[in-house]
């Protein structure tokens, strides 16, 4: 009597690891995502941004922590890192694989619903398309700045962002069109045109800056940038709370400059906040503190 064939199934962690290694071999920097399809939390060294942010990350470079850390910056093509003991526990908890499009010289136009897909088909040149649960990923060659909510149901994921791996898709990948680049610059990416009200005057009797070294202020601004950059949900609330924290510490001595504020606004806009939302959050934080 013929015995039935035995079908061997890889454990989920091994299957995800194998997928990650195969993608890395093609040049896609990969990282594991945990439950909720979000990156793993920072390592102990970097918990609560105690590291002050990795300098190379601010230029779009990778994180050099031993485990998957700093969200998109954990993405790597190095098989010795991906399969390392430091990453083993992450793969055991992971639910899917993601990649850093910008690190591979790619841009993903994330179309979140049928209306957004219809708009893309009428507006953008054809390229490789990957179906998602609710819409499609349109993938182009070349990298650009990542921006959320460039229009209803449309996000741009490229540098300093990650996208879930949902399969190779179909169609021939084409060059990134100007129509996509234009979506990211409809609103100014800095606060040079922001309302004059963002200047924070010192109160009477508080004109002397209590911060002994410029490094104290610089570290505070860097930590605030990192807190905004690493927000995985409730971005509006995170931006407001971060602005509130910065102003409560630095807002009354007059040491904040337009350049410091511009850095905070730019970090928030990189997470999809508009200049108006940034200005409103800043104004509300000042009002709360009575500045």
Distance between the termini: 86 Å
Order of helices and strands: HEHHEEHEEEEEEHHHHH
Give the helix proportion (percent range).
25-40%
Ranges with pLDDT <50 over ≥5 residues?
186-207
E-strand count: 9
The tally of helices reads 9
Q: What's the overall geometry?
A: globular
CA-based gyration radius: 22 Å
Mean pLDDT: 81
Strand content: 5-15%
Largest sheet properties: 6 strands, mixed
Q: Which structural class do you get from the secondary structure elements?
A: alpha+beta
Give the arrangement of secondary structure elements.
Blueprint: H1 12-25, E1 30-33, H2 79-82, H3 85-93, E2 96-99, E3 106-111, H4 114-123, E4 128-131, E5 136-141, E6 147-151, E7 154-157, E8 163-164, E9 174-175, H5 178-183, H6 214-229, H7 235-250, H8 258-270, H9 275-289
Helix pairs in contact: 6-7, 6-8, 7-9
Descriptive account of the structure:
The strands form two sheets. Strands 3, 4, 5, 6, 7 and 9 form a six-stranded mixed β-sheet that branches. Strands 1-2-8 form a three-stranded antiparallel β-sheet. The protein has 291 residues and is of the alpha+beta class. Helix content is 35%, strand content 13%. The N and C termini lie far apart (86 Å). Helix 6 (214-229) packs antiparallel against helix 7 and helix 7 (235-250) crosses helix 9.
